[in-house]
Structures are given as structure tokens and as C-alpha cells.
Design brief:
Keywords: Signal. With 132 residues, the chain is an alpha+beta fold. The chain has two domains: 58 residues, no CATH class; 67 residues, no CATH class. Helix 1 crosses helix 2. The longest helix is centred in the N-terminal third of the chain and has 36 residues. It is elongated, with a radius of gyration of 18 Å.
Length: 132
């Protein structure tokens, strides 16, 4: 049984590997999901895990280093924002939090919440990365 799982996992990885140059997060998510699914649910689990992992991998791709550097070096606003909710990658932040766009990277914005710098997708307000 373990041999079948390993072979199936390798097959899933071989199928997904060519996409690595275009969607690294998708491949990493798919590969991890397939292996975990195979361990838990056998061949069917590998297939389902690969699909779920691909979706999750795409959703939480980290921003490029230049965006992270910009947010790390940006001045902290005078009025601190404090919220009760925990800031979690993949979850949206409240509508009451004001976002600051990242110059030259309009697909990202940031805020300083609970004294943590948070990079978000301004379209969905979804947290992309928390800088600690």
C-alpha cells in the first residue's frame, strides 16, 4: 500500500512540475496537498489533496521582496490601529482599517494593525503577509 502511495504522489508531482516556473505557489500547494492526501486517503486522497493544495498555494503566494522591503521601511502612522480580531494570512481585514497603496505595485496595499505591518490585496482586503 505504501508503495502505491509513493508512486501516485510521484506521478502527481511529475504532472504538476512543468507549471513551476509560472505558478510556484500553486505547485508547492498541489505537491504538499497530494502527498498529505495520499497519506491520509490513499489514491483518491492524493487527487483531492492535490487540487485543494493547488488552490491554497495560489491564495497565499507571498508578495515580492521589493514590496515587503517597502512595507518594512514605511513610516508607522501616527494613529495606531487596534482591532480585536486576529490577523491571519488568507483572511480579510475589517472594512474600518484604512489601507495605504504600495507605489509601483497596485496589487498590494498595507496597514499597521496591532503594531504589526500587514500586506493585503486591496481588491479583497485579504491578508497576504504579516511582517513580524
Amino acid at each position: 500500500m505504501n508503495t502505491k502511495i509513493i508512486i501516485l504522489s510521484a506521478a502527481v508531482l511529475a504532472i504538476l512540475a512543468p507549471a513551476a516556473s509560472a505558478q510556484q505557489g500553486t505547485v508547492n500547494g498541489a505537491a504538499g496537498g497530494a502527498v498529505t492526501g495520499a497519506i491520509v486517503g490513499g489514491p483518491v486522497g492524493a487527487a483531492v489533496g492535490g487540487v485543494v493544495g493547488a488552490i491554497a498555494g495560489t491564495a497565499i503566494d507571498p508578495p515580492p521582496p521589493r514590496v515587503v522591503t517597502y512595507v518594512e521601511q514605511a513610516p508607522i502612522p501616527a494613529d495606531p490601529v487596534v482591532i480585536q480580531e486576529k490577523i491571519v494570512v488568507g483572511k480579510p481585514i475589517p472594512q474600518t482599517v484604512v489601507l495605504t497603496p504600495v507605489p509601483d505595485a497596485p496589487q498590494y496595499a498595507y496597514a499597521v494593525i496591532n503594531q504589526e505591518r500587514v500586506i493585503v490585496d486591496p481588491q479583497t482586503r485579504t491578508v497576504v503577509q504579516v511582517i513580524r
